[in-house]
Amino acid sequence: MTHTTPPHTVLATVDLGSNSFRLQVSRVVDDQLYALDVMKETVRLGAGLTAEKNLDEDTQQRALACLARFGERLRGFVPGQVRIVGTNTLRVAKNAAAFIAEAEQKLGFPIEVIAGREEARLIYLGAAHSLPDTKERRMVVDIGGGSTEFIIGSHYKALVTESLPLGCVSYTLRFFPGGKLTRSNFRDATLAARNEIQRIRHEYRPSEWQLAVGTSGTARSLRDVLEINDWSRADITLAGMEQLRELLIKQGSIDAIKINGLKADRAPVLAGGLAIMIAVFEELEIEKMIVTEGALRDGVLYDLLGRQREKDMRDSTVGLFKRRYHVDAQQAERVNQLAERLYRMLAGEDVDQDMLKLLSWAAKLHEIGLTIAHTAYHKHSTYILQNADMPGFSKREQAALATIVLGHRGDMGKMAQYISQPALWQAVVALRIAVLFHRRRQPLALPEVLDLKQNASGFELKVSQSWLQENPLTASSFRQEVNQWKTVGFKLDIVQE
Q1: Please, what's the largest Cα pairwise distance for the chain?
Q2: Strands 10-16, 21-29: parallel, antiparallel or unpaired by DSSP?
Q3: Nearest to 211 by CA among 292, 270, 272
């Protein structure tokens, strides 16, 4: 039996950025969040990427030491209170999986590596909650350590999202070797950034938005420096940034940077961030940009708050996919209800609520591949779920969804390489058997005796003998299923009662 827990009054998030790691603990009051504690450490994870795209050992150890401190702060929290997200560097690092496994031990909570467009959506959500709720369309730009996110949105909804591989850490390392601040280095960096931004320019032209907004460290640093040095008034402007660039060129090197209002931890990556922001202004024809304090970690917290209040973005995404791929909603719901029932049988009193949600979403989306072809449609469904932009879902959640859907039909021998988690096996079994029962795609009177249990050798399905005699096609499918499960070392016993 499961129990509904009341919403948490304190939430926490950790943002594992390519430049800085940030932890924020916030108190929930009605529909608003108020910060209780904020921790930031400049880890520069992105600077630890080798030419082979591996995180070097020194950077890993520096990051893990930081996360051990964060982990101490998070002691006593439960999973529903905490969400930890990784961004560009953890998306591209080839050895990210091994690092994440160690990092999760330090933190005590799972890490979600989010896609670029999901990062953009969350950034906009955080920015929107720190701005007046006006009707204008805003273009939000967030220059991070390894990527830059561009979002056009209105109110609290992101309408257009994009993520480009432009980062203040990566661009400083790439275009300012040895820390040299020359005119040619700035020119090369700005042109390279403009070349990337040109690919999305048609969607972000000035006619599409009324207000430009900057978020996160680069934007805040530029605003502060320009204002303190009287190069701009509270906003970022192209003229002000050009004056800053001239000063940096005169100073000649990153080690020699001395500028009023510039924090010490921002100086090593200022050149790359400035070149990118100049490119953004020039390519998107921005006259001025305001800066807001809300960013990714705030968006993650508000998204987590929404999940508590049954306003889960993932439900909206599943609904959108059902419409986009013309899912037979009645069939999906029939399969969903039986799959959830079977999973609860397998799990007993220890129901994994997160896995139950994933199973429900998988049941609703398992046939989306039919829009491509009936033959091997489960593989088409799997490919879509693995690779599509799915707002609200982490990469790990998408992978789990894809695995459950892949296993719902076809050769079971393929599944052993994808599944190690017992709850995931249970979800695959539940969906697979639910699909077999509902093959006729019509309302079905289920057998009076129906039970599914897991034992030491595999799974045992109990079905009324009279029901199987009345449904010979399903009975035949179950006999074939017994042989399928032998290929993965499990027994599936069909007990007729």
Answers
A1: 89
A2: antiparallel
A3: 292
Contact, 257 vs 270, CB < 8 A?
yes
Count other C-beta atoms under 10 Å from residue 473's C-beta: 10
To which residue do tokens 């779920």 refer?
A: 385
Report CA torsion sign: 358, 85, 125, 35.
positive
| Closest to 432 in 3D by CA, of 460, 409, 459 | 409
Nearest to 438 by CA among 364, 370, 338: 338
Mention every residue, 6+ apart, whose C-beta is less than 8 A from residue 160: 150, 151, 152, 153, 203, 204, 208
E strands, 19-76, in order: 21-29, 32-41
Q: Which two tokens stand for residue 349?
A: 């009193």
* Beta-carbon contacts of residue 207 (< 8 Å; ≥ 6 apart): none
228, 260 contact by CB (below 8 A): yes
* DSSP type of residue 114: P
CA distance 345 to 452: 6
Q: Write the DSSP string, 242-269.
A: HHHHHHHHHH-BGGG---TT--TTTGGG
Closest Cα partner for 286 from 189, 372, 204? Answer: 204
Exposed, middle or buried by CB within 10 Å (0-12, 13-18, 19+), for 63?
A: buried
Stated length of the chain: 497
In a structure prediction context, what are the per-residue pLDDT tens digits for the chain, which is 497 residues long? 344 556 788 999 999 999 899 999 999 887 778 889 999 999 999 989 999 999 999 999 999 999 999 999 999 999 889 999 999 999 999 999 999 999 999 999 999 999 999 999 999 999 988 888 788 899 999 999 999 999 999 988 899 999 999 999 999 999 999 999 999 999 999 999 999 999 999 999 999 999 999 998 899 999 999 999 999 887 999 999 999 999 999 999 999 999 999 988 899 999 999 999 999 999 999 999 999 988 898 999 988 888 776 677 788 889 889 999 999 999 999 999 999 999 999 888 888 888 999 999 999 999 999 999 888 899 999 999 998 888 888 888 898 999 999 999 888 878 877 887 888 889 999 999 999 999 888 888 888 888 888 888 788 888 888 888 888 988 888 888 888 877 776 777 777 66
Q: How far, in Å, CA of 292 to CA of 299, rounded?
A: 13
Compute the Cα dihedral for 319, 324, 325, 328 and give only its sign.
positive
Structural contact between residues 397 and 112, judged by C-beta atoms closer than 8 angstroms: yes
User: What domains can you pick out in the chain, each with its CATH number?
Assistant: 10-113 (3.30.420.40), 117-296 (3.30.420.150), 312-496 (1.10.3210.10)
Reference 124, options 213, 206, 205, 202; nearest CA is 213
- 193 burial type by CB count under 10 A (0-12 exposed, 13-18 middle, 19+ buried): buried
Question: In the chain, count of helices (H) and strands (E)?
Answer: 18, 14
